[in-house]
Design brief:
Arc Repressor Mutant, subunit A; five-stranded parallel β-sheet; 8 helices; phosphoprotein; WalR-like; OmpR/PhoB-type_DNA-bd; transcription cis-regulatory region binding
Length: 230
């Protein structure tokens, strides 16, 4: 089955290059240039993934991301941003973007990330499914559900995979590059992606995100999951 990718960007030069590279990689690609058109295209075409620019006319990328995440189909989103402010990237991930790239970016890297996100979205659950439990935190990998003290957590695709990976290996320190490879499936890339996802996870699973007790920083190394009963 040919996978469909919707590119949403009002910069025609950028979108032409992105579309050409994605088509060369074997994807069926559509393009729109504003946020309202993006929502209409997703509803009509049901793409498998959306490449979404942050700066758009009519509706900006953050609002489009927010509205797409309100849909039940959960289409994966890779956000593009020309802004260097980390707060924009964090907000995009908070709203549910599965990944982001800052402009200027390599079209080849974007193609690799599109493939990685689509593989993750389409992977079957492990057999048998796992149930990971620790101190009120429960993760079920089959239905991809996470709960804290009985309350459902709203996690993005990457946040869920990162949390499950860390819980599978309690008390083990992972370098950011190692997590990028094991969770994202990338042998290269911006390691700050891991930092942002860890920060977002802490806000969802820690009582005090500024002083984390579950996902702790190992200075000079990376991160470690500390079991509640340790």
């Amino acid at each position: 089955m040919v996978q469909r990718v919707l590119v949403v960007d009002d910069d025609r030069t950028v979108s032409d290059v992105v579309c050409r590279y994605l088509e060369h990689a074997g994807y069926q690609v559509a393009h729109v240039g504003d946020g309202a058109a993006a929502l209409a295209a997703v509803a009509a075409e049901r793409p498998h993934l959306v490449v979404l620019d942050l700066m758009l006319p009519v509706l900006d990328g953050l609002e489009v991301c927010r509205r797409l995440r309100a849909r039940p189909d959960g289409v994966p989103i890779i956000m593009l941003t020309a802004r260097g402010d980390e707060a924009d990237r964090i907000l995009g991930l908070q709203l549910g973007a599965d990944d982001y790239l800052g402009k200027p970016f390599s079209p080849r890297e974007l193609v690799l990330r599109v493939g990685s996100v689509l593989r993750r979205a389409g992977e079957p659950a492990p057999a048998p499914p796992e149930v990971l439990v620790d101190g009120g935190l429960e993760v079920e990998t089959g239905p991809r559900v996470a709960r804290l003290h009985g309350r459902d957590l709203t996690l993005t695709l990457r946040e869920f995979d990162l949390l499950a990976h860390l819980m599978r290996h309690p008390a083990r320190a992972f370098r950011r590059a190692e997590l990028l490879e094991r969770v994202w499936g990338w042998s290269f890339g911006d390691q700050s992606t891991v930092t942002v996802h860890v920060r977002r996870l802490r806000e969802k699973v820690e009582t005090d995100p500024a002083n984390p007790r579950r996902i702790v920083t190992v200075w000079g190394v990376g991160y470690r999951y500390e079991p509640a009963d340790a």
